[in-house]
Amino acid sequence: MTQTAPPSPAPNAPAPTARRAGRSRFGGILRLRELPVAFALIVLVVVTYAANPLFLSPQGTKDLLLNSTIMIILAVGQAIVIITRNVDLSVGSILGLVAFGTGSLFATFPGIPIPVVFLIGLAFGMLLGAINGLLVTIAKVPALVITLGTLYIYRGLSNAWAGGTQYFADDRPEAFGNLSVDTFLGFPVITLLALAVVVIVAVVMAGTRGGRDLYAIGSDPDAAKLFGIPVGRRVFTAFAVNGLLAGLAGVLYASRFNSVGATTGNGLELDVVAAAVVGGVAIFGGSGSVVGAALGAVLLTTITSALAAMRVDKFWQQAIVGVLILAAIIIDRVASLRTARRLRISEARDV
Fold first, then answer.
1. 259-260 vs 187-188, strand pairing mode
2. Where do Pro residues bias regions lie (predicted)?
3. Which CATH number goes with the domain that contains 98?
4. I need a labelling partner for 85 at 20 to 30 A (CA). Which of 37, 61, 212, 273 fits?
């Protein structure tokens, strides 16, 4: 009885393990939360450009980048908080306080150096964020309730401080206003600053123990405590950093827009949360990335500009944002259920 030798692999054919590794890497890319957001953004830009070629004119592109800048910074800070299974609804009020404070500094101290104004704005925002973090970690009350309260407190302080006063572009130094006008390699300077924030925070979140701890806390706070993670301190830090970034956004807001007053930042918090969720940051915590949140911010601001370019009623912008939020939550829930199912199947096979 003769035996047939198994067929030899074809020359230069990849090994089975290599093929499996390639498929695994490709599958991992397809499962990236940021991919659908990036794809939707590209489709939106292409369709809008086809309808109105001026949409991507040099000035139109610059306006798109500038409109996204402040939202990107706010969304990155909000993503840090949401990843810990919390939320901060006071960011719009923090931005408003810092923006008006920036105008006050220039009006009160005309010769104050611009870097000093940035440092004061960052410290002010960080203080307000730290108050949120302190209340959340000490009172053990859901962050949704705490920050809803501080939203109104900070807004009340802003109204009392500003009253009917507004600071306009003429009240600030020309060099400060030029931050949102000047470009470097074709990109607005403040947009490059926002991109630097995204890169730095993304590296910290992915490459440091503190960043990984935030994901662990969001996934299971009780388990994180058992593993020795200082949950209270990490959550406090997340809120403080979020406040710092809101402070930075407030200073840039004072540079970008013609006026700041008591109503600056009103209603902005919901757009910020929407940007983070649409960008793939799970509202239940534990997953997502600041890069996705930044893409979500760009997508939402681009929707606004695209609808304006196509002369569509502003109502549809709000409707589309609502649909995107629901879609993001549903997709995240389905993905979580599928992951849990795969884990159960894998455990059953091991048994």
1. unpaired
2. 1-14
3. 1.10.3470
4. 37
| Per-residue pLDDT reduced to its tens digit, 161-216 | 998 888 888 888 889 988 888 888 888 999 999 999 999 999 999 999 999 999 99
Mean pLDDT of the chain: 85
Dihedral sign for Cα 29, 31, 35, 40, please.
positive
Q: Is 195 domain-assigned?
A: yes
Q: Write down the pLDDT at residue 351.
A: 61
Rounded to an integer, what distance in angstroms lies between the CA atom of residue 106 and that of residue 47?
43
- Tokens 């800070």 correspond to what residue? 77
Helices 189-207/58-83 angle, 10° precision: 30
Structure tokens at 252: 């840039």
Domain count, the chain: 1
Q: Report whether 277 contacts 283 (CB < 8 A).
A: yes
Question: Are the beta carbons of 236 and 229 closer than 8 angstroms?
Answer: no
Do 76 and 82 meet the contact criterion of CB atoms below 8 Å apart?
Answer: no
What is the CB-side half-sphere exposure of residue 172 using CA atoms within 13 A? Answer: 30
Q: What is residue 333's three-state secondary structure?
A: helix
Q: Does residue 305 lie within any of the structural domains?
A: yes
Q: Report which of 339, 321, 294, 272 is spatially closest to residue 34, judged by C-alpha positions.
A: 294
Q: Is residue 231 part of a domain?
A: yes
Picking from 252, 329, 273, the residue whose alpha carbon sits closest to that of residue 90 is: 273
3-state SS, residue 338? helix
Task: Report the Cα–Cα distance between both ends of the chain, in Å, rounded.
Answer: 40
Q: Encode pLDDT of 117-158 as tens digits.
A: 999 999 999 999 999 999 999 988 899 999 999 999 999 999
CA distances from 167 to 4, 106, 164 (A): 88, 9, 10
Q: In angstroms, rounded to a whole number, what is the distance separating the alpha carbons of residues 348 and 92?
A: 48
Contacts of residue 193, defined as CB under 8 A and 6 or more positions apart, other chains included, come to: 69, 252
Q: Which two tokens stand for residue 123?
A: 């410290």
